[in-house]
Amino acid sequence: MKGAWRAADIRAAEKALMAKLPEGTLMQRAAAGLARRCAGLLHDRFGGVYGRRVLVLAGSGDNGGDAMYAGAALARRGADVRVIRLSDRIHGASYKALVAAGGRPAPAPHGHLDLVVDGIVGIGGRGALRERAAAVVAEAVRARAEDGGAPVVVAVDVPSGVEVDTGDVPDPAAAVRADVTVTFGALKPAHVVGAAAVHSGLVDLVDIGLAGYLVTRPAVEVPDHSDIAGWWPSHASTDDKYTRGVVGLATGSDGYPGAALLSVAGALAGPTGYVRYAGTAQESVRERFPSVVTTDSVGAAGRAQAWVCGCGLGTDERAVGELRAVLATPVPVILDADALTLIADGSMAQPLRERRAATVITPHDREFARIAGAEPGADRVEAALRLAAQMNAVVLLKGDRTVVAAPDGSAFANPTGSAALATAGTGDVLAGLLGSLLAGGLPAPRAAVAAAYVHGLAGRLAAEKGPTTAVDVAAELREAVTLATR
Ligand SMILES: NC(=O)C1=CN([C@@H]2O[C@H](COP(=O)(O)OP(=O)(O)OC[C@H]3O[C@@H](n4cnc5c(N)ncnc54)[C@H](OP(=O)(O)O)[C@@H]3O)[C@@H](O)[C@H]2O)[C@@H](O)CC1
Ligand SMILES: [K+]
After folding, report:
1. Which residue puts its alpha carbon closest to atom 33 of ligand 1?
2. 348-371 burial, b if ≥16 CB within 10 A, otherwise e?
3. Where is the YjeF N-terminal domain (predicted)?
4. Residues 267 and 210 both lie in one domain
5. Separation of 7 CA from ligand 1 center, angstroms?
6. Looking at the CA of 25, which ligand is closest?
């Protein structure tokens, strides 16, 4: 698990570390790491640094300082380095070093470029880029498009124009879109959540010795393969289908039988051996998945270790009764889609409050708004945490980088998201998989994180093969589980 810290926490750690080091050491470490990464990229793409055309965009703070010191290092290796100074007040020592190494000031982006180094703003940036910087970024984007996608864009610490602490991008047209972001000391939320995560491109973390000085809890954590593999319920040879956990699905309706099938497909790819389906789509479920035991209602189904409720369930009287039956069970419950619509008017407040086992809700932004009264807004992590605390439930807030927030204040960002998942029915697959993980005994936050991770991988695998439907995502789940858990 990697943590991401907000700017204030990074600054506090930096201060504590700097107190033990000679002045300027951290910037030298950061700039050296940045120069190394830039040289590596030039080497990979163009075979070397010598003669390559590099443009440094330098803002008024230390972010510009990092960029100009790195530019100086590249100039010393023979690169043709120009710098656009975006403020009258720029980091003096690094500018001098750059000029001494052969770098030259430039008024505007001009001609063919191989590499742009974005040192406009780092963790000191606030709001959308100011006019001058925004104009240069827009001009660089236009020139890049005309030049067939060249140059490579490297953001220093964060892509300029994003909100570091939230991952929001107030003006996407005027924010840098990086191929690679070279960041220092620790990840920041902008690298892992919201639109800013997409603007960051590949994120490369340079160690500057900060780790031991980050004493606060990270704002958000990011799982990797080893977390998922470590958490995934393993099967002892003595397990039978019951000890592996039974997941119950109260999903689908006459109007939406497909949602039942997709949620079952998701559940079958999880670690549990036994899936019970309770609903009006029993016939299609049995036909398509003969191993699933079906009944027409939650009341008639036997026991389960977790219930999934809502995907395609509808919002009629019958659906309300099924939701009440699910909420009354003493086991973990996932509320998705129509179940979220049904709880939005507050009519289920009491049964929800009375639950002792975990509740997980899986809203997209509009469903979130129905429950919370407003869309998540700029700070998706904070919004999800607030709702989690308010409802005493784990919130899985869907998005390009799905956020999982728990009532204990922990928050996670899923790194495997894919735009391919923004298509009808993928949420049903996710809910089924999540149900299986809960029935398999994972604590709710981990189950939600692991389900989002594997589901995201499946989305990517499906997208590699062409236009993606929820059926394609379900079909890739087994492969995704194998990849994530080995
Ligand atoms: N922390 C660490 O461990 C290390 C940090 N290091 C580096 O330092 C960086 C932080 O440097 P920093 O504090 O000087 O701030 P930074 O991000 O350069 O920009 C602030 C300036 O930008 C301006 N500005 C603000 N918003 C703006 C906007 N929307 N549009 C346009 N301009 C805007 C604002 O101007 P002002 O409001 O003052 O006019 C302010 O002066 C950090 O990201 C990393 O690269 C490494 O060297 C070593 C280890
Ligand atoms: K930057």
Report:
1. 125
2. beeebeebeebbbbbbbeebbeeb
3. 10-216
4. no
5. 10
6. 1
Task: Output the CA 14–ligand 2 centroid distance in Å.
Answer: 18
CA dihedral 115, 136, 183, 153 (to 10 degrees): -30
d(CA 56, CA 86): 10
pLDDT in tens, 158-181: 999 999 999 999 999 889 999 999
Provide ipTM, 2 decimals. Answer: 0.98
The answer to whether 295 is annotated as binding is no
Give which of 28, 368, 56 is closest to 209, Cα–Cα.
28
The reply to whether 418 sits in an annotated binding site is: no
Q: From the CA of 157, how far away is ligand 1's center (Å)? A: 10
Burial class (CB in 10 A: 0-12, 13-18, 19+), 422: middle
- The tens digit of pLDDT for each residue in 391-404 reads 999 999 999 899 99
Domain that holds residue 437: 225-485
Amino acid of residue 471: V
Do 341 and 284 share a structural domain?
A: yes
Q: Does the predicted model carry a pTM greater than 0.90? A: yes
Q: Structurally, how many domains does the chain consist of?
A: 2
The mean pLDDT of 306-315, rounded to a whole number, is 97
Nearest ligand 1 atom, CA 65: 47
Ligand nearest to the CA of 199: 2
Residues 166 and 58 both lie in one domain: yes
Give residue 116's identity as a one-letter amino acid code.
V
